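Q: I'm teaching a short session on how sequence maps to structure, and I want students to see two examples side by side rather than one. Could you give me a first protein with its sequence written out and its structure tokens following it? Keep the formatting plain so it prints cleanly on a handout.
A: Of course. Example one:
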Amino acid sequence: MNYGKTPEEKAVLERLGWAPFRASSDLQLVPIRQLALFKEMQGREKQ
């Protein structure tokens, strides 16, 4: 993501109360994946 590098772009983001964009790593999804795995493992134990 390149937005937010120039002074003009930084000014726009500042007016909005935002910061320059950063690439997402999808780490926010780790707890969801852990829950899905836990549910899958629980289902296998019942079989």
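Q: Perfect. Now a second example for contrast.
A: Example two:
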Amino acid sequence: MKIRPLLGVTVAAVLTLAACGGSDSSSDTTTAPAAEGVDLLAAGCPETVSLQTDWNPEAEHGNLYQLVGPGYTVDTAKLRVSGDLMAGGKTTGVKVEIRAGGPAIGYSQVTAELYKDPSILLGFTSTDEAVAHSGDEFPTVAVVAPFNINPQIIMWDPATYPDVKEIADLKEPGVKVRYFGGAAYMEYFTGTGILDKKQTDDTYDGAPASFLAAGGKDAQQGFGTAEPYFYEKVLTEWMKPVAYQYIHEAGWTAYAQSLGGTPANIEKYD
């Protein structure tokens, strides 16, 4: 199987938004006939193309979920969605399985999951994570980057800090900035003087509890595609706007959530 034709179908389906998921989920997992001229199974693809995300399903994962056809199955135990892999509104002869990450995999890094379970064809990686693991036991090869700009942000309460317009403005008042431990962008921020290391806190776990407990005094990382809407429209304990800046705009320009695989899988399907 050639992985590039597979990815060509994948990207085409994402860009045209032609593979919208169906209505009610179903336990019927029979594969529909492949679209004319597109038979990935005959080309050597695995019967199920497994894709590993890095968090609970969110807006920026939509390019993957658009690949899942009608009659999909939701596995609430393993936190996965599977169905026919679609392209141009037609099936491709194989299944696609999208696996939730973050809490669903015990906060394990996607790169580690790719090695733990070789049946995962591709998973979300980022430039910084790939570089960090390039010399150890978890090297990866990225094959497509869905985003031109990393959707990660640093967010803060504009009511508490009305004069803060960008991440660098958080430095002078010494605002605590909470982030996921090991994030390379924070090393960049502290190394270049955008933030002071003493004001950073690597205990962020993706939940809003600490932000709420601080009552707007702390800043934290998030995604521009998720947290601003969630905090203003959904989170009943907050229900007001947050201000934010993309870390890309602050100078950290790594590709985020690229789809990559192990060198062995890339070579096998290249």
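Q: What should students look for in example two?
A: Point them to this: Confidence is low (pLDDT under 50) at residues 1-31. Also worth mentioning: Helices lie at 3-16, 62-65, 110-116, 127-132, 184-191, 209-213, 227-234, 263-269.
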